[in-house]
Amino acid sequence: MPFQNIYQPSQVKVLTVALDEYCQVRGIITVDGREEVAFRLMDLFSKGAGTVEALRAGLEEADRSIRVPAE
Fold first, then answer.
1. CA distance 52 to 10
2. Rounded Cα gap, residues 66 and 18, in angstroms
3. Among the residues of 1-71, which ranges form H helices?
4. 6, 19, 35, 63: which sits with the fewest CB atoms below 10 Å from its CB?
5. How confident is the prediction along the chain (71 residues), in pLDDT tens digits per residue?
6. In the prediction, which pLDDT does 7 show?
7. DSSP state of 5
8. Using CA atoms, how far apart are residues 24 and 27, in angstroms rounded to an integer?
9. Which among 7, 66, 28, 11 is positioned nearest to 58, based on CA atoms?
10. Intra-chain end-to-end CA distance of the chain, in Å
């Protein structure tokens, strides 16, 4: 079976920087928390977000859409 989803080093670097920045700003330090963010980043990347800025914007947009308004 051929390999699927093979990424170039430059693409891995973009994903790593986006993951590290997002987790640092939000204080996400657990493996599970970082893994969840990584899955979200991979989804955004597969949909065409190919820069740190685009990935950051995608995560922030998703964050805004899932926030529950205070009562």
1. 11
2. 20
3. 9-26, 31-46, 52-66
4. 6
5. 565 678 899 999 999 999 999 999 999 999 999 999 999 999 999 999 999 999 999 999 988 887 655 55
6. 86
7. S
8. 5
9. 66
10. 53
Q: In this structure, are residues 23 and 33 in contact, taking their beta carbons and an 8 Å threshold?
A: yes
Q: Is-contact 20 33, C-beta < 8 A?
A: no
In angstroms, how far is CA 69 from the centroid of its own chain?
24
Question: Quick one: 34 exposed, middle or buried, by C-beta within 10 A (0-12, 13-18, 19+)?
Answer: middle
CB 52 within 8 A of CB 14: yes
From CA 9, how far away is CA 38, in angstroms rounded? 16
**Domain boundaries in the chain?**
30-65
Q: What is the DSSP letter of 60?
A: H
User: Which residue reads 């922030």 in tokens?
Assistant: 60
